[in-house]
Design a protein that fits this description.
The complex is a heterodimer of chains A (116) and B (117).
Chain A (H helix, E strand, L loop, with lengths): L2 E5 L2 E5 L4 E8 L5 E7 L5 E7 L5 E3 L5 E5 L4 E6 L8 E8 L9 E3 L3 E6 L1
Chain B lengths: L4 E3 L2 E4 L5 E6 L6 E7 L6 E7 L2 E4 L8 E4 L6 E5 L8 E8 L11 E2 L3 E5 L1
Parallel strand pairs in B: 2-11
Antiparallel strand pairs in B: 1-3, 3-8, 4-5, 4-9, 5-6, 7-8, 9-10, 9-11
The chains are: A mainly beta (116), B mainly beta (117).
């Protein structure tokens, strides 16, 4: 069965500092991996996803994530935090085309605080 | 292009009352999802439709929850009767399924925040 673990329910960084949000997964098959962002009172919005090919994935708003199979990780980074990055971030894993469908499992989320 | 539309945005009811949520997915999206999101948690799938067919409802508490997606477009999620523990945000999402399943981007609505008193 798949699972997603996001290390740290809250992360606080200063404006301009590196953002690192951690995500580890378990999956019995090569997974699809996603990062979504949720602003207050809004739905989730895709930041980036890994499906196949290059393991370093670039997304919107300057975020990127690297799929590391050996570490079963998909950590999200941004070189320089902006105040507008303050939000909740969710890592998700989806299995690949199992007969009968697929399942997407979301992590519990990490709330990012950005200090001025 | 309009996103996923949900209504109502907020709902307060007393326990044992019925409640219904409505979702209009992005035009052309054949897959529709209903998720439950508790405070401080990630979304948990309740049901997934591909067109009119519910292809995964394994997490839907069928004793009190029901859903339908008539004509493969709009969908309604109903709870009857509501319990205190049903207080949460109910998210609807849609995606365009094609190619390898599981890799689609899901587009989320703003959710319906339910409070059961």
């Amino acid at each position: 069965a798949q699972s997603v673990t996001q290390l740290g329910s809250h992360v606080s960084v200063s404006e301009g500092a590196l953002v690192l949000l951690r995500c580890n997964y378990s999956s019995s098959v090569p997974p699809y991996l996603f990062w979504y962002v949720q602003y207050p009172n809004q739905g989730l919005q895709l930041l980036l996803k890994y499906t196949t090919g290059a393991t370093l994935v670039k997304g919107i708003n300057g975020f990127e994530a690297e799929f590391k199979k050996s570490e079963t990780s998909f950590h999200l980074t941004k070189p320089s935090a902006h105040m507008s990055d303050a939000a909740e971030y969710f890592c998700a894993v989806s299995d690949r085309g199992k007969i009968g469908g697929f399942k997407t499992i979301f992590g519990a989320g990490t709330r990012l605080f950005v200090k001025a | 292009e309009a996103g996923v539309v949900q209504s109502p945005r907020y709902k307060i009811i007393e326990k044992k009352q019925p409640v219904a949520f409505w979702c209009n997915p992005i035009s052309g999206h054949n897959t529709l999802y209903w998720y439950l999101q508790n405070l401080g948690q990630g979304p948990e799938l309740l049901i997934r439709y591909e067109n009119e067919e519910a292809v995964d409802d394994s997490q839907l508490p069928k004793d009190r929850f029901s859903a339908e997606r008539l004509k493969g477009v709009d969908s309604t999620l109903k709870i009857q009767p509501a319990e205190l523990g049903d207080s949460a945000v109910y998210l609807c999402a849609s995606s365009l399924t094609g190619g390898a399943p599981g890799q689609e981007t899901q587009y989320f609505g703003p959710g319906t925040r339910l409070l059961v008193l």
